[in-house]
């Protein structure tokens, strides 16, 4: 018996400081799995239609989002991962805040995805750790624990 094949995409979200905020909003956005998933679903609907959205929703899920380092893990089926990936590159904003998605890695194995995500998290945290408060550093350690316990 063959198991269901997934692809895990490790993405980096760049908040675009060069563009003006849409709608005159002043505060930066807080990334959550919900608003990232909604932005990707909207992009799938716009670019591939309702049938494209329906076919990709079977296994689509935003499994992890770190609001500090702006890394996220998106799961999709092996058959639909290219469509989801294409839609993510076409996302222009989350809420009213302009963003750009950057693909760091695509894997078919949860273990490999966890290892790559931990490596990227540690590198990004070293870059921005000097400007973080103690509360944000504690939050980041909680995010690392969530990756270590990450399962499909």
UniProtKB/TrEMBL annotation:
Gene3D superfamilies the record matches: Ribonuclease P, Pop5 subunit
GO biological process: tRNA 5'-leader removal
Keyword match tRNA processing: yes
Location(s) in or outside the cell: Nucleus
Record's keyword terms, sorted: Nucleus, tRNA processing
One annotated GO molecular function: ribonuclease P RNA binding
Pfam families: RNase_P_Rpp14 (PF01900)
GO cellular component, one term: multimeric ribonuclease P complex
Similarity comment: Belongs to the eukaryotic/archaeal RNase P protein component 2 family.
Summary of the function given for this chain in its UniProt record: Component of ribonuclease P, a protein complex that generates mature tRNA molecules by cleaving their 5'-ends.
Name this protein carries in UniProt: Ribonuclease P/MRP protein subunit POP5
Source organism: Arabis nemorensis
């Amino acid at each position: 018996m063959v198991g269901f094949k997934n692809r895990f995409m490790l993405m980096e979200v760049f908040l675009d400081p060069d563009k003006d905020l849409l709608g005159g909003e002043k505060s930066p956005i807080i990334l959550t799995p919900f608003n990232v998933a909604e932005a990707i679903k909207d992009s799938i609907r716009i670019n591939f239609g309702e049938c494209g959205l329906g076919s990709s929703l079977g296994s689509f899920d935003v499994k992890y989002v770190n609001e500090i380092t702006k890394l996220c893990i998106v799961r999709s089926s092996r058959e639909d991962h290219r469509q989801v990936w294409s839609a993510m590159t076409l996302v222009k904003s989350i809420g009213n805040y302009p963003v750009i998605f950057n693909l760091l890695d695509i894997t078919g194995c949860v273990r490999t995805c966890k290892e790559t995500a931990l490596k990227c998290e540690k590198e990004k945290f070293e870059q921005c750790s000097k400007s973080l408060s103690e509360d944000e550093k504690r939050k980041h350690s909680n995010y690392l624990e969530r990756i270590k316990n990450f399962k499909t």
